[in-house]
């Protein structure tokens, strides 16, 4: 059995029907405009209006395709050096080019069997992984 087949067969299922609704990334107070410039203008996501009670807390909710990211305000937060969401992207090379043209470094990593992937950081230093499955 090829490594990619072992990977795909190892995902399993549960009796609970798990799925991921969103990922929350902490951001400092007052950073919403910088985040919009990256997540909306560069990544092409859409800002979603938060429910009124949650909007009082600040931050942003962003959606596109099958992805939702919540940027939550957190006093004294600092970006993680390693933790990150793994985001599937069909146009991986075009996205990498867009990020680089916008001044965001892209670091390719070929160590994940069955996927092409790269890491980048948002303007606040949060690590993001973008990846696409490859067929053997």
Please summarize the sheet with the most strands.
4 strands, mixed
Q: Rg, please?
A: 16 Å
The arrangement of helices and strands along the chain is HEHEHEEEHEEE
Total number of strands:
8
CATH fold-level name: 2,3-Dihydroxybiphenyl 1,2-Dioxygenase, domain 1
Q: Name the CATH architecture.
A: Roll
Query: Low-confidence runs (pLDDT<50, min 5 residues)?
Result: none
Percent in helix? 10-25%
Residue share in β-strands: 25-35%
Which overall shape is indicated by the principal axes computed on the Cα atoms? globular
Kindly give the count of domains.
1
**CATH-defined superfamily:** 2,3-Dihydroxybiphenyl 1,2-Dioxygenase, domain 1
The secondary structure category is alpha/beta
CATH class: Alpha Beta
- Total helical segments: 4
What can be said about this structure in brief?
By secondary structure, the chain is an alpha/beta fold. The chain has helices at residues 3-9, 32-42, 52-55, 92-101, and strands at residues 23-27, 46-48, 60-64, 67-73, 86-88, 107-109, 115-121, 127-133. A hairpin with a 5-residue loop joins strand 7 (115-121) and strand 8 (127-133).
């Amino acid at each position: 059995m090829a490594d990619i087949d072992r990977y795909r067969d190892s995902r399993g299922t549960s009796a609970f029907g798990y799925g991921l609704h969103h990922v929350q990334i902490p951001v400092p107070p007052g950073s919403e405009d910088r985040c919009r410039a990256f997540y909306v203008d560069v990544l092409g996501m859409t800002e979603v209006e938060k429910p009124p009670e949650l909007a009082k807390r600040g931050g942003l909710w962003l959606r596109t395709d099958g992805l939702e990211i919540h940027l939550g305000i957190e006093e004294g937060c600092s970006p993680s050096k390693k933790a990150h969401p793994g985001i599937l992207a069909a146009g991986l090379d075009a996205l990498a080019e867009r990020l680089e043209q916008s001044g965001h470094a892209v670091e390719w990593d070929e160590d994940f069997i069955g996927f092409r992937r790269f890491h980048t950081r948002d303007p606040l230093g949060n690590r993001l992984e973008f990846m696409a499955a490859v067929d053997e």
